[in-house]
Each structure stands twice: as structure tokens, then as C-alpha cells.
């Protein structure tokens, strides 16, 4: 019942849904609302957020800088796994939600709140990511999922716009540009509006982090990235913290038109959804990391790790960040990264992310073995027996057919 809720901590972004939800919670549950906004690299999107939350009715708002934790404990572990969902999506939103939900649970405990609330719809993935984290970290907390609540009377974004107008709630989007976006250090996503038509080309004015490749510089930009045990630690010889490094590479890559993705993905709930993503720095780091692994990882270790990468990406995408299988998977992946130390040189040019060189003190590459010139370390005649043994089952199969 409504009177059972006394204090609720709302995951607050200041977007359409959560802006409306603050007032809706107060009207519906007659409760105190504490807002929580995680600074994950949204930059100017956080401007004025405190005043807006309080003016809408919140008693308090936490705005916490979680950029370093996000980069170090969520983005970099996924990078070590080369995690990419359905071959395209670098999991920008998927990795952010468990961190937001974790801190939300911690604030609820500190505030003595009996409930937590999120603004994710009943059609999307974020509802699962938030709620699985809540259940994993505090199963006894009450969850108010506004879009699935019996008291929720909105049936469209149009009705929410009208409600916001009634209460003079400022919104970052308009009826003419109803795009939903989510920004952090790893990416910015764009959904809704004309983008719901998979045949429609995304309008250029939606892009925030990347230049159009055709407007990018006519000369390539070279950048060198140093890694230690699978983690990027420096750019062009300058050591940086994880968040600072990501922000820096975002600027360089975005200026060169790198990281735009337009995909139709399979949501966990079962439907297909079209999303447009900008992941400039993440695209460069992913390609550089993969290049360094090519000279530092044993073939069979890499093969096994690569076989697990789709599962890792699926678990992260579906919200199982705090599941025991994810912990076990991360432990194996981190073990594979012990030798992934070295430097990769990347060439960035008009949307293209090109590996221009790689080196490592742990390199398994040997020019003495790989050369096409005369060598003293490899007897090519040995390959005849190797091939014959590997062909044995094929030969037997052929004989049996005859």
C-alpha cells in the first residue's frame, strides 16, 4: 500500500522519466524522495541537476563522482575480456547500471530508506540490470519500478511531457526531438523518435562525442597506448588514471570520427531494438588491446578466452554483473591477462581505427621463426608429418565411405 513507503532513493538522471517520477512518487506514495545521480562522465548534463531535483520535490540529492570506479572496476574488466555484445556493442550502458544500482543500495542504507526506485521501462534491459543488482545486494529492499507500478498512469512519452508541463518541470528533450540518450565515459547512446525506424538514417545533429568521418581531419592521428596486464595505463608515454585516460582517448578518437555504431540488437526481454551509439575511446582501446594480445597470449589460452567472451558480454548485457558465474568468468579472464603488457600504436583516420604497430617485453612473436627468408630454427620438412597426422581422421573417413 502507498502508506508503506516512507523514504525512497531514486536513481535520478534528470531525463524525462526520472524528472516526472520524483513528483509522481510524492503524489502516489506521500513519501520522502532522495535523488541519487552518479557522475559517470556526463559532463554538462549534470549542470543544474541539484536545483532541478529539489525544485521538483526531492528532499535531498546525492551527486557523486564515480568516474574512476566506473572506469577501473567496470569498463576495464570488460576490456580485458574484449567484451562486445552481438559483435558490435561495447556495453556502455550495460556496465554503468550495476554501479549505479550498487551505490543506490548503499545510499538507501545510509539514509534509512525502505525503498529504491528506477525509471527504466518494462520493455528495456535497464529494468533487469537495476533490479538484479538490487536483489543481489539487498533482497529485502522494496523496489518501485515506476513503469510497472499499478499506480503508474502514463502510457506514452506524450502524456509525460504534458505532466512535466503541468508542474513546470524542465526537460532535456522536447516533443520535436524525443531522443533518449545515456552518456558516460564509455559511450553515449541514442534511442527513440525517428531512430525507431531501422530504415531511417540517424540525423547528424544527434551526435555528441564524434565528428562525422567526412568532416574529420584529412591527416591521420597517431596515438600510442601502453598496457599493463590488460589495462591501459598511459597514452603517448603519459601515465593517467583510468577515467582521465578514457576521457583523453575519447577526445582524440571523437575528433577523428571513430566509434559510431548503428545496430538493431536483441534485448533480454525478447524484442529487437534499434540503438545508435558513439563509443570513440572504447573503440580505440578495444582494438589496441586485441592487437597487443595477438603477440602476448598463447594460442590455446586465447582460443578458450575468446570462446567465453560472448557469454561474458551476454551476462553484462543482461544484468548479471554480480552473479557468481560472472565472478568466476572474470577470474579466468584476468588470469589470461598476466602477460598482456606492452605498447600499441594506433592510426586514426576518418572513422578508421587502424593498428600501426605493437610491441611487448612478453612478446611470443619471433621473427626468427616467422620469416620467409632463410632460417636456422625451423625444418619445413617437419610440417609433412604434422599435416599427415592431422589428416588421419579425414583419410579414414574417406576410406569408409568407399
Word description of this protein:
It is built from twelve helices and 14 strands. The chain is an alpha/beta fold. The chain has two domains: about 1-65 and about 95-175, Rossmann fold; about 185-360, Argininosuccinate synthetase, chain A, domain 2 (Alpha-Beta Complex). The strands form three sheets. A five-stranded parallel β-sheet has the order 3-2-1-4-5, sandwiched between helices. A five-stranded antiparallel β-sheet has the order 10-9-8-13-14. Helix 1 (about 15-30) links the parallel strand 1 and strand 2 (about 30-40). Helix 3 (about 65-80) packs across helix 4 (about 90-110). The radius of gyration is 25 Å and the shape is elongated. The protein starts with 6 loop residues before the first strand and ends with a helix. About 40% of the residues are buried. The model has no long low-confidence stretch (mean pLDDT about 95).
Q: Would you identify the CATH H-level superfamily of the largest domain?
A: Argininosuccinate synthetase, chain A, domain 2
The gyration radius over C-alpha positions equals 25 Å
Give the CA-based shape: elongated
* Biggest sheet: strand arrangement: 3-2-1-4-5
**How many DSSP helices?**
12
**What is the end-to-end distance?**
76 Å
Mean pLDDT: 94
**How many separate domains?**
2
Biggest sheet statistics: 5 strands, parallel
> Which CATH first-tier class of the largest domain would you pick?
Alpha Beta
Which fold name fills CATH's third level, the topology of the largest domain? Argininosuccinate synthetase, chain A, domain 2
What fraction of residues sit in β-strands? 15-25%
Run of helices and strands: EHEHEHHEHEHEEEEEHEEHHHEEHH
Query: Uncertain spans, ≥5 residues at pLDDT below 50?
Result: none
Helix amount, in percent?
40-55%
Structural class, judged by helices and strands?
alpha/beta
CATH 2nd-level architecture of the largest domain = Alpha-Beta Complex
The counted number of beta strands is: 14
Amino acid at each position: 500500500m502507498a502508506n508503506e513507503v516512507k523514504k525512497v532513493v531514486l536513481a535520478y538522471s534528470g531525463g524525462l522519466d526520472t524528472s516526472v517520477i520524483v513528483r509522481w512518487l510524492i503524489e502516489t506514495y506521500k513519501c520522502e524522495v532522495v535523488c541519487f545521480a552518479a557522475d559517470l562522465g556526463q559532463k554538462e548534463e549534470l549542470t543544474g541537476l541539484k536545483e532541478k531535483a529539489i525544485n521538483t520535490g526531492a528532499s535531498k540529492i546525492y551527486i557523486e563522482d564515480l568516474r574512476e570506479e566506473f572506469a577501473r572496476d567496470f569498463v576495464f574488466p570488460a576490456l580485458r575480456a574484449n567484451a562486445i555484445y552481438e559483435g558490435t556493442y561495447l556495453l556502455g550502458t550495460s556496465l554503468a547500471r550495476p554501479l549505479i544500482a550498487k551505490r543506490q543500495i548503499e545510499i538507501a542504507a545510509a539514509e534509512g530508506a525502505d525503498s529504491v526506485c528506477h525509471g527504466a521501462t518494462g520493455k528495456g534491459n535497464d529494468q533487469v540490470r537495476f533490479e538484479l543488482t538490487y536483489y543481489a545486494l539487498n533482497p529485502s529492499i522494496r523496489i518501485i519500478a515506476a513503469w510497472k507500478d499499478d499506480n503508474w498512469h502514463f502510457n506514452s512519452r506524450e502524456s509525460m511531457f504534458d505532466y512535466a508541463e503541468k508542474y513546470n518541470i524542465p526537460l532535456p528533450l522536447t516533443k520535436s526531438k524525443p531522443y533518449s540518450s545515456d552518456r558516460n565515459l564509455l559511450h553515449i547512446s541514442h534511442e527513440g523518435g525517428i531512430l525507431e525506424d531501422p530504415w531511417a538514417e540517424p540525423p547528424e545533429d544527434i551526435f555528441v562525442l564524434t565528428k562525422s568521418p567526412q568532416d574529420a581531419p584529412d591527416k591521420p592521428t597517431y596515438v600510442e597506448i601502453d598496457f599493463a596486464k590488460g589495462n591501459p595505463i598511459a597514452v603517448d608515454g603519459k601515465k593517467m588514471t583510468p577515467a582521465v585516460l578514457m576521457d583523453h582517448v575519447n577526445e582524440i578518437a571523437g575528433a577523428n570520427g571513430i566509434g559510431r555504431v548503428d545496430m538493431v540488437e536483441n534485448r533480454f526481454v525478447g524484442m529487437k531494438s534499434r540503438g545508435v551509439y558513439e563509443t570513440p575511446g572504447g573503440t580505440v582501446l578495444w582494438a589496441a588491446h586485441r592487437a597487443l594480445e595477438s603477440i602476448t597470449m598463447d594460442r590455446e589460452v586465447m582460443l578458450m578466452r575468446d570462446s567465453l567472451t560472448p557469454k561474458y558480454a551476454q551476462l553484462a548485457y543482461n544484468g548479471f554483473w554480480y552473479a557468481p558465474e560472472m565472478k568466476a568468468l572474470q577470474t579466468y579472464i584476468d588470469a589470461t591477462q598476466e602477460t598482456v603488457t606492452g605498447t600499441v600504436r594506433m592510426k586514426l583516420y576518418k572513422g578508421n581505427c587502424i593498428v600501426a604497430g605493437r610491441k611487448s617485453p612478453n612478446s611470443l612473436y619471433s621473427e626468427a621463426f616467422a620469416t620467409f627468408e632463410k632460417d636456422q630454427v625451423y625444418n619445413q620438412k617437419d610440417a609433412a608429418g604434422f599435416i599427415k597426422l592431422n589428416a588421419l581422421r579425414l583419410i579414414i573417413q574417406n576410406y569408409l565411405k568407399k
